[in-house]
Structure to design on (752 residues):
């Protein structure tokens, strides 16, 4: 197995132990790891497999099924553009294209400096304020192409 | 047993409670077209919708239901042949085909493909739906198993088999929606995943998505290059090869198989049973040393390459328990390239050894770097039972009309009945005990058959044997799910055994990953319970051949005795170690 730091191994084992009495603990374990580290690489999946007895292939299947989980580290600023039906008909595609153009990354990618990740989301349940964009948990309502550049600047300044 | 009254196609039947419509219909004489062909719950997803029928419960509406999972109920009326049901089944198959690689003519699974079969019986129309296709992965990196997702129907049987046989599920569903594929984690190759290459997945795959990597071309090249091509055949092959030529399961075809091999142009045809006898001499001696001189116990057998892969991946700390013996065909290959070539006056470089095996992992085994001596590989190509059948079919040989012929008899044609039973779980143990008992007591074991250790299932069997006042505890396991129990005992220091036989595939080599496919839809003359009985039938074919042998103990094989006198010296001698023993990889990474 590749080389996780001892502290990380300890913490991941601790997360697995938290749910050892659950009949189906996998989602909870992965969810905690995703929140803690921002991604779930194969080395971590192997460790979870050893602790839980669930095969790596099955864990990998769950990680790749849910868009909430990530195999690669995410940026400091995670931009999620909702492309659900309501947002889409209100112009969400143009909004995400604008983010893509300015940040020079495609949906699903992270910028080289590790600052921004752009995600395409399915319906986030905010249809009343479509098109909606979610950045690090904050929801921005009724987005438009013009609002994209100032928003990016705002986050660049905040994290500078 | 509670009986239910149901109607199928308007006819009245009584069936047991608890059956699915598919099972009930089968008992009443109807074969509902289905992709799973009653695969014993190895697919329970009911997602393919190929077996749709119309069912009506009481006065309720007629509904289209998947008969593979829908239970029968009292008073139910089932219609299989209605226009609605037949059209629905046809559409299901056409939709599967729309995302399928339709190179059926060139696919090696042609003739054994369940998808092609249901396409035929449901009357699927040509190119009915065209559209986008899921991105394809083709993995041919291992010498054993190839995976081609363009032919996968996402039934998940391979995943279920891997889990059921080995507790592994190396394969899993990954990604989502239209992009879903089945593969090892990260869509890796089998070559850098902890797959033991047993090939069980290839035996349940309904299509050509998982198959062995063929080495027929290598054999052709050797013939073309004018090499001395020698073939050696594993015991389990003769118990199943006939199935490829429409014989009943369990028909031994040793004589016809040899006749076919000769007509295919092999210079010499040998039985790996000779190698099996040699293995017993080496392994038996090794066990005696360990018992009497305090070596690592329990000793574990090392004949099954799938099991060896598992040991290296998951129990590297227990590798010292493994016998250092090579598997029989590797031993015999090494002898063919040394002693035999010497006797024949051949340069070993001009000799090409082909092994016919019931196994896909043997293909990997023969490529292990340690399986050679002075740069001469022990074995050059491994064909599965299925590949041998393909070679016979393409050559125009009418297998069923062949005469019965016998193995080549010269310096290694003789074999004992002990060698034959290697092909079934418990066989190596039984063969070894016959010899170990003799070595320890100077007498033959009165009853030749150690029937208490026989069986053909995947469970654990154990026995104790009193040899000259010493109790020897033995255990047998096949399939890694069973083996794990015994291995964990060793790890915890609670194992009471001295000698453990482990085989990779559930039931042993007779059920190996390279054996003919057992697919009920292509076996109209077999009983309905064939999936439960085929292992026993194949095992009986081997046991009956053991009974026919005059020599039934490896140490009484005169040619083996001669080999030691003239060449090897004695079992576990220096030369024997160089040629017949091996080492294991303690550093094997599961995901490298």
């Amino acid at each position: 197995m590749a080389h996780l730091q001892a502290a990380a191994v300890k913490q991941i084992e601790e997360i697995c132990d938290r749910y050892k009495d659950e009949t189906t603990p996998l989602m909870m374990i992965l969810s905690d790891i995703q929140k803690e580290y921002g991604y779930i690489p194969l080395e971590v999946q192997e460790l979870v497999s050893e602790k839980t007895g669930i095969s790596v292939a099955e864990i990998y299947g769950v990680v790749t099924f849910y868009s909430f989980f990530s195999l690669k580290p995410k940026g400091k600023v995670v931009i999620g553009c909702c492309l659900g039906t309501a947002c889409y008909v209100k112009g969400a595609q143009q909004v995400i294209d604008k983010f893509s153009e300015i940040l020079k990354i495609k949906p699903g990618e992270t910028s080289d400096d590790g600052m921004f990740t752009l995600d395409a989301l399915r319906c986030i349940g905010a249809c009343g304020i479509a098109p909606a964009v979610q950045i690090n948990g904050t929801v921005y309502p009724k987005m438009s192409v013009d609002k994209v550049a100032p928003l990016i600047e705002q986050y660049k300044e905040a994290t500078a | 047993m509670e009986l239910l009254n149901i109607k199928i196609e308007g006819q009245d039947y009584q069936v047991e409670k608890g059956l699915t419509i598919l099972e009930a219909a089968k008992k009443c004489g109807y074969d509902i077209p289905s992709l799973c062909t009653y695969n014993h719950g190895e697919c329970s997803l009911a997602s393919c919708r190929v077996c749709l029928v119309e069912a009506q419960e009481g006065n309720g509406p007629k509904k289209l239901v998947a008969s593979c999972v829908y239970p029968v109920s009292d008073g139910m009326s089932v219609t299989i042949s209605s226009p609605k049901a037949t059209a629905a089944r046809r559409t299901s198959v056409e939709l599967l085909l729309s995302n399928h690689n339709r190179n059926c003519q060139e696919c090696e699974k042609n003739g054994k493909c369940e998808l092609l079969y249901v396409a035929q019986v449901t009357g699927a129309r040509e190119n009915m739906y065209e559209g986008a296709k899921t991105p394809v992965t083709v993995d041919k990196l291992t010498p054993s198993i190839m995976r081609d997702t363009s032919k996968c129907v996402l039934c998940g049987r391979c995943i279920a088999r891997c889990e059921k046989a080995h507790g592994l599920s190396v394969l899993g569903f990954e990604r989502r929606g239209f992009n879903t594929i089945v593969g090892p984690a990260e869509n890796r190759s089998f070559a850098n995943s902890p797959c033991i290459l047993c090939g069980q997945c290839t035996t349940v795959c309904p299509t050509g998505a998982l198959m062995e990597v063929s080495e027929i071309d290598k054999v052709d090249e050797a013939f073309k290059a004018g090499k001395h091509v020698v073939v050696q055949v594993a015991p389990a092959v003769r118990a199943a090869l006939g199935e490829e030529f429409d014989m009943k399961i369990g028909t031994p075809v040793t004589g016809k198989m040899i006749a076919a091999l000769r007509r295919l142009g092999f210079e010499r045809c040998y039985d790996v049973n000779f190698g099996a006898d040699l293995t017993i001499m080496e392994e038996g001696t090794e066990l005696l040393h360990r018992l009497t001189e305090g070596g690592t116990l329990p000793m574990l057998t090392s004949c099954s390459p799938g099991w060896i892969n598992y040991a290296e991946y998951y129990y590297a700390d227990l590798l010292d328990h493994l016998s250092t013996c090579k598997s029989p065909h590797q031993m015999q290959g090494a002898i063919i390239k040394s002693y035999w070539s010497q006797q024949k006056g051949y340069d070993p470089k001009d000799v090409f050894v082909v092994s016919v095996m019931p196994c896909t992992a043997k293909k990997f085994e023969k490529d292990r770097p340690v399986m050679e001596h002075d740069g001469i590989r022990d074995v050059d190509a491994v064909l599965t039972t299925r590949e041998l059948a393909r070679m016979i079919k393409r050559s125009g040989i009418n297998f069923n009309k062949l005469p019965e012929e016998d193995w080549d008899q010269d310096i290694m044609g003789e074999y004992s009945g002990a060698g034959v039973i290697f092909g079934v779980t418990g066989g190596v143990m039984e063969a070894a005990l016959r010899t170990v008992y003799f070595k320890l007591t100077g007498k033959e074991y009165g009853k030749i058959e150690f029937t208490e250790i026989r069986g053909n299932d995947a469970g654990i069997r154990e026995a104790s044997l009193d040899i000259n006042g010493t109790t020897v505890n033995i255990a047998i396991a096949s399939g890694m799910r069973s083996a794990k129990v015994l291995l964990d005992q060793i790890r915890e220091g609670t194992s009471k055994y001295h000698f453990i036989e482990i085989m990779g595939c559930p039931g042993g080599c007779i059920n190996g990953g390279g054996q003919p496919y057992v697919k009920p839809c292509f076996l109209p003359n077999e009983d309905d319970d064939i999936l439960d009985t085929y292992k026993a039938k194949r095992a009986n074919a081997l046991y009956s051949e053991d009974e026919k042998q005059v020599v039934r103990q490896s140490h009484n094989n005169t040619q083996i005795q001669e080999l030691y006198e003239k060449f090897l010296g004695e079992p576990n001698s220096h030369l024997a170690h160089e040629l017949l023993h091996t080492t294991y990889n303690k550093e094997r990474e599961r995901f490298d």
Notes: Strands of chain A lie at 77-82, 116-121, 133-135, 138-140. Chain A has a mean pLDDT of 92. Chain A has two domains: 6-65, 77-159. Chain A is about 50% helix and 10% strand.
